[in-house]
Structures are given as structure tokens and as C-alpha cells.
Amino acid sequence: MSQLNVDLITNRDDNGAPLLVYGANVSSGYALTCSGGISVSGVITATSFEGDGSSLTQLPVVSASQAYGLQTIIKYDAHRA
Predict the structure, then answer these.
(1) Could you tell me which residues come within 8 angstroms of residue 24 by beta carbon, excluding any fewer than 6 positions away?
(2) N or C, which terminus of the chain has less Cβ within 10 Å?
(3) Residue 49 phi/psi, 5° resolution?
């Protein structure tokens, strides 16, 4: 397999980040680190998340009646957990 080692990659005009037209893959066990922020259009899938999740947005909301119904279906008792 070919390997390319570089310290910096910029766009053609050398004034910003390159556009990854065909996407990018990061193998398991490695990390993609971004400074500033990251913008993604599409789906992000992860096996785990870190942090308290307080800044996550657009998550489905479960009502009290839905939670009670689910507890009834799976016979979950919070006082015994």
C-alpha cells in the first residue's frame, strides 16, 4: 500500500482547507481532529459519544406516557435498578 506523509494540506489556492470530493475514511483506532468546528451534511454514526450531551440538538423527545409505556413493556422498575 502506498503511503503519503505530509505536514500540511491546503486547497489549490493555498488559502484554505482542501475539498474532499470523494469523502475521507479514518480507520478504526485512529482519530480525526479538527480545530474550530466541523460541519457535516449527512449521517454520522458512532458506537459511543463522550461528554454530557447537553449541547446535542434535534434529538427525539420521549414523553412521560411513552416512558411509562416502555417501562411497562420491558417490565423495568427504576427502584430496583
Answers:
(1) 32
(2) N
(3) -130, 155
Where b means 16+ CB within 10 Å and e means fewer, 24-43 reads eeeeeeeeeeeeeeeeeeee
* pLDDT tens, residue order, the chain (81 aa): 788 898 988 899 999 888 888 888 888 888 887 777 788 888 888 788 788 877 878 877 778 887 777 777 877 666 665
pLDDT, one tens digit per residue, over 48-62 is 878 887 787 887 777
Question: Cα–Cα distance between 81 and 71 in angstroms, integer?
Answer: 12
The answer to whether the predicted template modeling score (pTM) of the entire model surpasses 0.90 is no
State the cell numbers at 30.
485512529
Q: How far apart are CA 33 and CA 66, in angstroms?
A: 38
